[in-house]
Amino acid sequence: MATGERPLALVTGASDGIGYELARELAERGYDLVVCAEDPGIAEAGQAFEAKGARVERVQADLATHTGVETLYDRVRSVGRPLEAAAINAGIGVNGDFARETDLDAELKLIALNVTGAVHLAKLVLRDMVAHGRGRLLFTSSIAALMPAPFEAVYGASKAFLYSFSEAVRNELKDTGITVTALLPGPTDTSFFERADMEDTKAGAGRKDDPADVARDALEAMLAGKDRVVAGSFRTKAQAAAARVLSEPQKAQLHRGLTEPGSADK
After folding, report:
1. Looking at residue 153, what DSSP letter applies?
2. Is 20 a catalytic site residue?
3. Fewer Cβ neighbours under 10 Å: the N or C end of the chain?
4. Residue 2 lies in a domain
5. What is the total count of domains within the chain?
6. Which one is catalytic: 20, 73, 155, 163?
7. Is residue 137 within 8 Å of 179, Cβ to Cβ?
8. How far apart are CA 128 and CA 199, in angstroms?
9. Which residue, 22, 61, 16, 58, is CA-closest to 221?
């Protein structure tokens, strides 16, 4: 990195929620940005990050597709500077009974974004980081990665994949100077619950963590090179602690109480 040049960071899912706060926090910490989201709100978000002093490349792309990931990566490369940090954050959820209610196409798109797109983008980003001998990578997993997730069966499995993948790749890269960090947030005040049709669940209707607090915890852990961070409130950290001692059926039942449709009224 040239003397006086701002470091460059990538954030996906940056138009709102945790991704928006990750990008905002990075801009405030002196990073220039490449930000991506599927929706046109990424343009307005980019203006907010520029107001923090960052140079911003905005990319509207569907990272559930091969073309979308390649389009984003081409824009990153076009900046002509190596990534110092990347937050692979974009993700979606699907709520409901897997065998009797949910839509298969929606679940396959979830896998395409949360798993396939994340692996695709990580492959490209980490290859470049290895070539430059430095970098920090953050995956947004979930507290749901630590337990079976009834009524979010595919979502929970996708986040468990990301958590395992993050830890494995981190170990592979332990002698390179590159670190990989998994973010495990609990229920956070974003549009996730509305998009996943979870507003009538206990998790969707209950108290949620501030995405700005989650993003701050995440970046501090990433920049410190930690392997994972359970971000947000004491309640979320208590859930993570409980996951270490409960059996899998007990954890599944605990999760069911939070995500079963109609549980907000129970």
Report:
1. H
2. no
3. C
4. no
5. 1
6. 155
7. yes
8. 40
9. 22
